[in-house]
Amino acid sequence: MSGSIDEVPLPDLLQLFSTSKKNGALVVRTEEDVGRIYLKKGVIYYATINDLDEIPPIKCIFRMLTWQKGLFDFDPQDSKEFDKPVEVSVQEILMESLRQLDELNTLREQLPALSARLLLQVPLLPPLRDLTHEDLDVLQLAHNFCKLGTVLDKSQATDVDTARIVLKLIEKNYLRVE
Questions:
Q1: Which structural domain range is residue 114 located in?
Q2: Are residues 13 and 90 in the same domain?
Q3: pLDDT tens-digit profile of 87-132?
Q4: Quick one: pLDDT at residue 82?
Q5: pTM of the model
Q6: Closest CA relative to residue 24, chosen from 69, 66, 72
Q7: 8 and 73 share a domain?
Q8: In the chain, which end has fewer C-beta atoms inside a 10 angstrom radius, N or C?
Q9: Which of 171, 111, 166, 170 has the alpha carbon at shortest distance from 138?
Q10: What are 43's strand-pairing partners?
C-alpha cells in the first residue's frame, strides 16, 4: 500500500492499520526526512526518523504526526526487532499527540529558531541548586550541543517538556540565545 499523506493523513493510516491489526512498517518520506513506524498486530512497537536511534521512538511518532506533506509506503514484510521496543496503542498516541501539538503551537512563538545557539550565561549567577533534575539535564544538553534542534533531539523528555524547560532556563538567566 502506498500514497500521499496529503490525501491520507498519518492519523487515518495508523487507525486503519490498528483496526485491521497489521504487522509491518509504515515508511513516510518527506523532502527532508524518512520516518518509520513499526507495528505488530496493530500496536506501535517502534519508530525512528532518519534511522537515528538517539531520538526516543515516542518522540519520533509525535514528530511524524505533524508532517503534512510526503509519501508513504506500508511494508507488511518488515518486522525488525529492537533493543528497547515500546508498546502503545494508536489511540493513546493520537490523543497525546493532539495535546502536545496544541501546547507546542502555543510555545512556538516564544521559542528561538531550531538553529539558534543556546549558551550558558557567563557569569552564571542563579544557583544551580534551584533547578530540578530535568532542568539540569536540559541545561547540560544545551551546554554540550548548543543548538536548540539538537537539544530537542537528544532530550529524553518530550519536545513540549524540553521546550518549556529551555524557555524557563532562558527566562531565569541560565541560558542565553545567540
A1: 110-177
A2: yes
A3: 889 999 999 999 999 999 999 999 999 999 999 999 999 999 999 9
A4: 86
A5: 0.85
A6: 72
A7: yes
A8: C
A9: 166
A10: 40
Domain boundary among 69, 84, 106: 106
Q: Using DSSP bridges, classify how beta strands 175-177 and 118-120 pair: parallel, antiparallel or unpaired.
A: antiparallel
Same domain, 95 and 172: no
Question: Dihedral of the CA atoms 53, 55, 58, 59 (nearest 10)?
Answer: -150
Number of domains in the chain: 2
The predicted pLDDT at position 1 comes to 86
d(CA 146, CA 148): 7
Please indicate, yes or no, whether residues 86 and 152 belong to a single structural domain of this protein: no
